[in-house]
Amino acid sequence: MSEHGKKTITSVERKAPLAYFGANGRPPSIVRFERLYLASFAASLIGWAFSWQQTADRLAIDPKTASYTWLLPAALLLSCAITLTLWYLVARRASLAAKWVVTILTGLAAVRFAINLLVVARGKVPVLALLLSAAILVLGVAAVVHLFRPDARLWFGEGLEPEEEEA
């Protein structure tokens, strides 16, 4: 305060936006995204484990797909590769394009879940599978929500003024 009891403004060193993110250089929202996204991924792997035999049996019974026993492991590997690549690009490389891919895929998962509720109404889906799908979806949506928080927007370079982008 000054002599007359009024507050005075002192100049503050201007930092680049990413300098506010802490020791590891990532904002808290991105760290939370990472944890939720990877938890969703782990839950989906549990889902794969529970449904593996049933899916393999359905492939083996159908004469059109019986010779494609490699399809199930290939689908799992492809799913893991896509999920982990998106995680890396969003949480470690601040890829804006990957952020939107994750957002769109999560939106499509929500639509698929809603459609699957119609199948559940007919009693063709076990309750455990429904609960696991709901958990995966909730974790995924919660992860994506963190991508749109103010500190995450800075992480992706969104909302920066032109002079700040060069800093």
The beta-strand count equals 0
Note the beta-strand portion.
Answer: under 5%
* Average pLDDT figure: 86
The structural domain count equals: 1
Shape: elongated
Structural class of the helices, strands and pairings?
Answer: mainly alpha
Portion of residues in helices? Answer: 55-70%
Give, in order, the helices and strands. Answer: HHHHHH
Question: Low-confidence runs (pLDDT<50, min 5 residues)?
Answer: 9-15
Number of helices: 6
Major beta sheet, specifics? none
Radius of gyration: 23 Å
The termini sit apart by 31 Å
What would you say this structure looks like, in words?
The chain crosses the membrane at residues 36-55, 67-89, 101-121, 127-148. Keywords: Membrane, Transmembrane, Transmembrane helix. The chain has helices at residues 28-61, 71-91, 96-121, 127-146, 150-155, 162-166. With 167 residues, it is mainly alpha-helical. It has one domain. It is elongated, with a radius of gyration of 23 Å. The two termini are 31 Å apart. α2 crosses α3 (96-121). The protein contains six helices and no strands. The longest helix is centred in the N-terminal third of the chain and has 34 residues, at 28-61.
